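**Fold in tokens:**
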Amino acid sequence: MTKEFLFEQIQQKQSFLCVGLDTDINKIPVHLLELEDPIFEFNKQIVDATKDLAVAYKPNIAFYEAMGAKGWESLEKTIDYIPKEIFTIADAKRGDIGNTSALYARAFFENMDFDSVTVAPYMGSDSVKPFLQFKDKWVILLGVTSNEGGKDFQFLEADGKPLYQHVMATSKAWGSDQNMMYVVGATRPEYLTDIRKTIPDHFLLVPGVGAQGGDLQEVCKYGMNSQCGLLINSTRGIIYASNGVDFAEKAREEALKLQQEMSLLVQSI
């Protein structure tokens, strides 16, 4: 998917919502467990309920890997079911040497046809560039994460700047704003001003809005650019809004609340 097409979808839907599909067999409604593939059925109903409100879906690959071959089957069925005009993110956080990265890229871009994959930058350019060889596919590089342990390394200073700024300044030369995005946690919106000085035109994937305490208005105040430049991810607050038979209906209600707030922000661009 091209950057231009993604922005068109944002304008059409008046939304920059990404719905996380971190589907846990232990959290989905119990009535689904009677079905042959409860994980896919859950995802299917979430997608049906939110596909007119979301511009992206982000399955966290660990939730599927943990279930073995059956989990991979559920994931493949989910990706095949999501409408092609909606951006898909393999939240896999891969990062390894070049040959291995090339195989990870093939797995997600060729075999499963994801639009993007999250990648860890710690091993440097040769672990990231293999993912950038695929036309109209995206690397989403970990930048500033919202977990508590992110402070262990990301904010260590060198030459008067925190490590995450060095990562962004160096890595932006590996690709472009047409094939690279960055993860920036919503619980750290105060850093977005400096981040935008380094990568003004790149899209940012922003997890942590909603259940994790991130504030949408604050993120947009500091992070939005002339082409929106944001994909705001919400997971638990949407997909687990209810654990009853009305789970899809309640998911839609929560997604709609965010979309309506986003609509006003998109109109201001």
Observations:
- Strands lie at 17-20, 54-58, 87-94, 116-119, 138-144, 157-158, 161-162, 180-184, 203-206, 230-234.
